Amino acid sequence: MKIKAKHLVFLFFMYFLAFIALVAVPGGWAADTDHCLMCHGDAGMVGEALYVDGDKFAATRHGDMGCVACHEDAGYEHPDDGMALAAVNCNDCHFDVEKEYNAGIHAGLASCNDCHEPHSVRGPTEVSGYDMNLMCIGCHSVSRMVDSHNRWLPQAGLHIEAVPCITCHTDSEEVVITWYLVKQKQAYGDFVLMSNEELQEVAGERSITELVDRDGDGHVSLAELRAFNTAREFRGLHLVGMMTPEQVSHNFQVLDNRWDCTFCHASGPEAMQVSYLAFPRGDGSFKRLDVERGAALDALYGTPNFYMVGATRNKTMDILGAMIIAGGLVLPVGHGTMRFFTRKNRQGGH
Ligand code: HEC
Ligand code: HEC
Ligand code: HEC
Ligand code: HEC
Ligand code: HEC
Ligand code: HEC
Ligand code: HEC
């Protein structure tokens, strides 16, 4: 084939374009994550407010994307040009979440990074229920929430400690029980989660999972739970359970079936069979081990700090529980229906 002049012109034009691209769009190739972290990974250099923990970031699902996937306009000239970088738009990639979120009552009231720390995001199975609640209570104070929920929900304080807000306020319906190691102290409830460091101190030479999983097989049996709960060496430690969602939907709303106590206080073989024990990692995220099916029902020795009224193996306790719920229902149903019918008015009045 003979090379014609117009081919040459075309080739030259393409080289020219490639050259322009290299010079004018430095973000993609020169300014990579390590480069950013040379400054932002060093608090002494940029100050606390601009510090980003590179190890935490690398361990997230965003780690591989690198900084510039979100901070698209951080190029060569940054920070010398003194130009502020554009706000990051999570929706470039998470459009499904955005769509769902915008269909809920929260749209426009809180942005993605009001709840998520963008440099250390984790999925719901690696974030504690406790931390999920911390995402809400900066705007919805616990004391106000306990007061308002107490009007229809007995022991609202206990519920808020045991059920993260999102379990009731989004339609994430697949919930499990997750156990956390805690010590007694005041935070917003009467317990605080043990950190990785604190547990490592107790565990000494052992790995922290072996505090409960004694045989180290990666599963927690009912026998191991019982042994943990009765061991003298762990007297300061407790296990508390929370009902956490496996996946999180973002359509924040007030859902009618969450008035229904039996949504959670169910009985029968399917009730509360699946549970996990979550151990804190050094970076604040959690790693779960699975727990023998049905362990959550052994309220006597297996899980003494968790009692799901209506779902235990103990008949007397269940009958008692059923009575509490039935008794409690009289008020919530009557009250609830009334509030439901007047909801429009209430919203107008706010
Ligand atoms: C030479 C050190 C240095 C490097 C390298 C650097 N930054 Fe910065 N960055 C700074 C400083 C200093 C500021 C504060 C600038 C200001 O206040 O004008 C800043 C501010 C920022 C901000 C927040 C404020 C704003 O301008 O919107 C972001 C986001 C940011 N940098 C991201 C990055 C990313 C992403 C990279 C890598 C592509 C990077 N930086 C590389 C020093 C650096
Ligand atoms: C998933 C998207 C995403 C990635 C990836 C990302 N950031 Fe950010 N970053 C954000 C968001 C969102 C903010 C909040 C301000 C905004 O909207 O620009 C932010 C803020 C910042 C700030 C300002 C201080 C702060 O913490 O609010 C700095 C500095 C920064 N990022 C640096 C980095 C560096 C360095 C990397 C890579 C190690 C990185 N970012 C990766 C989304 C991201
Ligand atoms: C450049 C694309 C991109 C952007 C922009 C982006 N993400 Fe992601 N994000 C991903 C990918 C890919 C995953 C992993 C797959 C998935 O869960 O969809 C992910 C996962 C997540 C997860 C779950 C983490 C896990 O371990 O399961 C959260 C939470 C998250 N992103 C929040 C955010 C937030 C908040 C922002 C805005 C600050 C953001 N993302 C911006 C691509 C992005
Ligand atoms: C009102 C608080 C709140 C807001 C606002 C919010 N999220 Fe979330 N999101 C959560 C909670 C709580 C979880 C579960 C714990 C976790 O993974 O951090 C979660 C989980 C996620 C996950 C993982 C979902 C899964 O099932 O694996 C992604 C992805 C995500 N959020 C993206 C976003 C994006 C994008 C936005 C903005 C459109 C957003 N979030 C706004 C509270 C919020
Ligand atoms: C950045 C602030 C902010 C954060 C964070 C936040 N919210 Fe909200 N939320 C609001 C505002 C503002 C409203 C509307 C006014 C009101 O009802 O308090 C609202 C309304 C609501 C409503 C509807 C109330 C009604 O009257 O119908 C629910 C339910 C709700 N939020 C749940 C949550 C949950 C669950 C979380 C955490 C996962 C959360 N919010 C985190 C600001 C926030
Ligand atoms: C057991 C399920 C459940 C839990 C847990 C729960 N809520 Fe609610 N919440 C509801 C229901 C049902 C309503 C509707 C009650 C009404 O309209 O009076 C409601 C009402 C609300 C409202 C509107 C009325 C008000 O009090 O302002 C807000 C805001 C709210 N919840 C936020 C939260 C937050 C934040 C948390 C966690 C700290 C939380 N909820 C925990 C079920 C729950
Ligand atoms: C979203 C799930 C959920 C819903 C809905 C729910 N609960 Fe609960 N409830 C729990 C959990 C989890 C616990 C705490 C178990 C523990 O930590 O001991 C609990 C505890 C209780 C307790 C206290 C038991 C004790 O140890 O003192 C009572 C009473 C109770 N619930 C009644 C109700 C009633 C009545 C309703 C309906 C108005 C209701 N619950 C709705 C999940 C739920």
From TrEMBL:
<keyword id="KW-1133">Transmembrane helix</keyword>
<dbReference type="InterPro" id="IPR051829">
    <property type="entry name" value="Multiheme_Cytochr_ET"/>
</dbReference>
<feature type="transmembrane region" description="Helical">
    <location>
        <begin position="319"/>
        <end position="341"/>
    </location>
</feature>
<dbReference type="InterPro" id="IPR036280">
    <property type="entry name" value="Multihaem_cyt_sf"/>
</dbReference>
<protein>
    <recommendedName>
        <fullName>Outer membrane cytochrome MtrC/MtrF-like domain-containing protein</fullName>
    </recommendedName>
</protein>
<dbReference type="Pfam" id="PF22113">
    <property type="entry name" value="Mtrc-MtrF_II-IV_dom"/>
</dbReference>
<keyword id="KW-0472">Membrane</keyword>
<dbReference type="InterPro" id="IPR054337">
    <property type="entry name" value="Mtrc-MtrF-like_dom_II/IV"/>
</dbReference>
<dbReference type="GO" id="GO:0016491">
    <property type="term" value="F:oxidoreductase activity"/>
</dbReference>
<dbReference type="InterPro" id="IPR018247">
    <property type="entry name" value="EF_Hand_1_Ca_BS"/>
</dbReference>
<keyword id="KW-0732">Signal</keyword>
<feature type="domain" description="Outer membrane cytochrome MtrC/MtrF-like">
    <location>
        <begin position="88"/>
        <end position="185"/>
    </location>
</feature>
<keyword id="KW-0812">Transmembrane</keyword>
